[in-house]
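dude i think i finally got it to work??
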Amino acid sequence: MVRAPAGDRGRGRRRRTRAFESRAHARAPHPSRARSARRPARGRGRIPAVSLPRAYRAHAIVLRGRNLGEADRALSLLTLERGKLDAVAKGVRRGDSRLSGRLELLSEVDASFHRGRSLDVITGADPVTSYWQRLVTPEAFAVASVVAELVDAFCEPELPVPAVYRLLRGATAAIAGRGEARRVLARFELRLLDELGLGIPLDACMHCQRALAEQAVVDLSVGGLACPSCLRPEGNTVLDAGELVALQHLGAPKGQGASLRAGAKVARAVETLIVHHLGKTARSLAALDALAPE
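look at this
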């Protein structure tokens, strides 16, 4: 048997190795092709996007506004159907605008909107209720500003809260219809906390759950009331029996002994509880405090 020279045998092994590698490379798909093969086909296995209508209507109450450009105005609204939202009223500051005079503070309108890139656009506003002429007195306007600011601060965007909407509508009517608008504020604040699920027990201690009768101490660490046994009165706001009863009537639901009769001390106690839950003091309170005291 004649053997091939050593050099020929090496070349043969290299040729066979290259032939095997080329066949293996031909069988294996390219990495990019393998990834595309694992990808689902376009339109398959995906949840179709829900397209929202470009135009819609909603009942809305104006909470605040700021000037935008030469004639526009950006508004924060509380709507019955969609919760709080921001929108722009184009050209509303022009005298000949169809929206002029309809989007003042706490005015209620049946509005039509068109979805925009950053802000929705108010395309129409039919008045529902407007107490603007009776809200321009200093005290009424200051109270209305506090009420609107609290709703704006507590309510989350695009989260419908129909109970708060109805509460705001009723409070606006009460502010416009009373000679002493400031008396509406404390009751509104307590009812707002109730409707938001932050209601404060007004007849029991927050710590020991015992009934409050003779005295109640405002406990800012928990945002509620405590009995003198659980919290020392020194350095804290203390309500006597009469003031405690007034506070309970102030926060009672409509038709269950509700009353607006509350002194300055009770109103201040409610204000401190609101500050605790909100985490800050409403800026509009400065204008209200600058007026003559209650």
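The two ends are 124 Å apart (CA to CA).
im so relieved honestly
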